TrEMBL record:
It comes from Lipomyces starkeyi NRRL Y-11557. InterPro entries: HMG_box_dom (IPR009071), HMG_box_dom_sf (IPR036910), SRY-related_HMG-box_TF-like (IPR050140). One of its GO terms (cellular component) is nucleus. Keywords: DNA-binding, Nucleus, Transcription, Transcription regulation. GO terms for biological process: cell differentiation; negative regulation of transcription by RNA polymerase II. Residues 78-88 have a biased composition (Polar residues). This is HMG box domain-containing protein.
Length: 88
């Protein structure tokens, strides 16, 4: 998922939710995704520029950051996240 789309989705989420009360989050995401696909190249370029600026800003603030997705494993039939906060 591109930074441009993430910013676009964040910006439009509340409006789409208000226009479609009762829709689930996956349904809202589909609506926003369809809107994104219908944008012109010029409109997407604006969001791409914002996404590039956000990436640059994030890199400056967190130069050592590396994305490390969490792995889901199963223990005794229960879902368990290996990076969960379990200090008990």
């Amino acid at each position: 998922m591109s930074a441009a789309f993430i910013l676009y989705r964040q910006h439009h989420h509340a409006v789409v939710v208000a226009e479609h009360p009762g829709k689930t989050n996956p349904e809202i995401s589909k609506i926003i995704g369809e809107q994104w696909r219908q944008l012109s190249g010029d409109e997407k370029a604006v969001w791409q520029k914002l996404g590039d600026e956000e990436k640059k800003s994030h890199l400056e603030r967190f130069p050592d950051y590396r994305y490390q997705p969490r792995r889901n494993t199963k223990r005794n039939g229960n879902d368990f996240q290996s990076n969960s906060h379990s200090n008990s």
